[in-house]
Design goal:
Structural class: alpha/beta
Number of domains: 3
Distance between the termini: 64 Å
Largest sheet: 9 strands, mixed
CATH class of the largest domain: Alpha Beta
Shape: globular
Radius of gyration: 24 Å
Strand content: 15-25%
Strand order of the largest sheet: 7-8-6-9-10-11-12-13-14
CATH superfamily of the largest domain: Mur-like, catalytic domain
Helix content: 25-40%
Amino acid sequence: MSAERLSTLTSWHSDWSGLRVAVLGLSMTGFSVADTLAELGADVLVLSESAEEEYARLLPVIGARLELGSLSEVPEALESFDADVVIASPGFSPSHPVIRWAQESGIAIWGDIELAWRVRDKVTRVDGTPAEWVLITGTNGKTTTTQLTASLLVEGGLRAAPCGNIGVPVLDAVRDPAGFDVLVVELSSHQLWYIGQSSAEGELYPYASVCLNLADDHLVWHGSADAYREAKSYVYRNTRVACVYNKADEATRRMVEDADVIEGARAIGFDLGTPGPSDLGVVEGLLVDRAFLDDRARSALELTTLRDLDDVGLAAPHIVQNILAASALARSLGVEPEAIHSALQKFRLDAHRIQVIARHAGITWVDDSKATNPHAAASSLRAYPGAVWVVGGDLKGVDIAELVADVGGTARAAVVIGVEREAVVAAFRRHAPTVPVFEVDAGETGQVMNRVVEIAAGIVDEGTVLLAPAAASFDQFSNYADRGHRFAEAVREWIDRGSTDDAGGSHTSL
């Protein structure tokens, strides 16, 4: 099929029949792609190394084919399929053999986000136009900010849906018969890389966008820190109304300055300081907006107070930053300050995001298992200075030394978990030598968190124990939620035993 024919596929109502599409991966995202294309009448071949039973059963029902097997090399079934388009799940990196083969073969490569943008007019608003898109990315805080933004929009009277990397495929939201005014789309750096490969017809034109922050992450997938940063920057491309950025993170400001946006789009800054005109910030305990009002030079609108946020567990500095970013996005769509205040009084953080799981015998136990990289862990440590820090796991190719140098010295002690403990211990030895470090042997995974809790309880009589691993969980746990659940279970068991004995542990003398 010619590039000219592909360029015509910019609507749900375009002629998709006969399009030969190879879908890589059969996760939730992969299935949403296959289901959408089958509904459109395309010829769909799904290739995956594994498949959940339900997805494998449903594929032939919807009219798609499944080829299971290794993808470490290009399978013969794919070569003979003669695909017009390859649509890859976000897990397929730029260096993956099948992606390289498609590029070298001149086959168009899309992600699920590009497909969703092309067919976004399946269900329209009352005026006949598709839902607006608000894009959210960042190394940390994406999911919280996506949930916050959607909550603020709904409180403001708009039909809004959080989707994308948050767990609901964008294609499912696009095809929802209820329809929406706004889709709040969380984007990972992986999804953004695929957006960066889009042809002119597949480019997104979001209403508003934000990159919350930037720190090294997913370097193995992207190949370098520069490539990771470049992928993140795509979030601002073609933004039409508001490019929201973090004034405390120079990288996000440069992204906005360098972005190709639609003429008239405004740069809206946020941070925890006093805001200038066109910014959101904090003044004497008040969160205020100086961007979306007529007299920006001399006035500000109150959104909420730090005291009110503290009452509902939202006052940690990095959460306040997320709230300011979400408020900027919501205000760009006309949500009134009163609605923002009301929505924030009802909002609650997800499990495993700076979640206080217990207070007992003078110890506060905090689960921030979702802090899967150094940047997120640093935010948690700043929110809980002097905590016993539970750290370690799959480092994903990231050097943890800078994190330890920056904030490791604020910890009362460190309890190191994971299979890459040596790198973490070495970082403490070099950059925070006065912090006591305790190692938990990788050993039997089921006992890791029990040992963590025993050791931590033996260190601290009064204070905080903070699980903020700064690493992925897959070396010892199913995912970050499993890691957090096991931590919480171990804390509950310790409380039930009523044990406050010093458990000792393997102490690393530095």
